[in-house]
Amino acid sequence: MNLLQAVVLGVVEGVSEFLPISSTGHLTITENLLGLSVDDPGVTAFTAIIQLGAIAAVIIYFRTDIALTTRAWFRGVFTPSARSGFEYRLGWYVIVGSVPIGVVGFVGRDVVSGPLRSLWVVAAALILWSVVMVAAERRATQSRGEQDLTLRDTIVIGAVQCLSLIPGVSRSGATISAGLFRGLDRVTATRLSFFLSIPALTAAGIHQSVTEAGAISTTVGWLPTLVGTAVSMVVAYASIAWLLRLVAHHPISIFVGYRVVLGVALLAALYTGALNAT
């Protein structure tokens, strides 16, 4: 992988990670267009590692909220009288809500990095999950805010987040949709989606960095990987701010048209042989 390819992929990751359009799906498509083998272990690891840049952007953007929640959680763990605040509960919500994808991602890691890394899967997921997003907006009452979050909400949303392991579904599309089905307003569902992304994507990136270090060194290179990660951080920061403003006034279903058109175009390209599935 050369540096220009790394920059392109970093931009794609930064733009698409938090929008409900599937970053993994877009990275898989872009890698294919750039002539990279999407099922190569090094390329798969690169895809996971550059997500750390997007997570760094989340941590920087929400640094005040994260610091308050972390301090409140630690105080509450050791001091029973400090357990009544919302930040303490939110700390537990993020921890518990991250467990499902951690378990499913670890158990199904070979499937996620193997058979699911197919553009046929990406195309189908882009189209089919769009139906769920439309249904979520139609069913949404948006009657509950952040202070109304419950443990059941985060367990449900965390479980649905597991579906984002399928390229094309979109992690934010899955979690925000689940939040809307639970009656949360869009901003609350989106903020929770950001917080739940931190443990999930950090664990995936670190795991790939450690287990696929050799593959990165021989097939992709660490310099392109670091460049891609840095670019994704800068672009993702801007993407976060834009998305939060967008969801305050617009439904997530505005992305459905793009998802469906991309999915159909991808199916046509695969059917005619213009693109290879892997």
Short recap of the structure:
With 278 residues, this protein is an all-alpha fold. 75% of the residues lie in helices and 0% in strands.
Question: How would you portray this structure in words?
Answer:
- The chain is mainly α and 278 residues long.
- It has helices at 3-16, 23-33, 41-49, 51-61, 63-78, 86-107, 109-113, 119-139, 151-161, 171-181, 186-211, 213-220, 222-247, 256-272.
- α3 packs across α12.
- The model has no long low-confidence stretch (mean pLDDT 89).
End-to-end distance, in Å?
17 Å
Number of helices: 14
Strand content: under 5%
- Give the biggest beta sheet: none
> Helix and strand succession?
HHHHHHHHHHHHHH
Average pLDDT level: 89
Helix content: over 70%
Unreliable parts: none
Gyration radius, rounded: 18 Å
| Secondary-structure content class | mainly alpha
Q: How many structural domains in the coordinates?
A: 1
Shape: globular
Descriptors:
about 280 residues; 14 helices; mainly alpha; globular
SSE topology sketch:
Blueprint: H1 3-16, H2 23-33, H3 41-49, H4 51-61, H5 63-78, H6 86-107, H7 109-113, H8 119-139, H9 151-161, H10 171-181, H11 186-211, H12 213-220, H13 222-247, H14 256-272
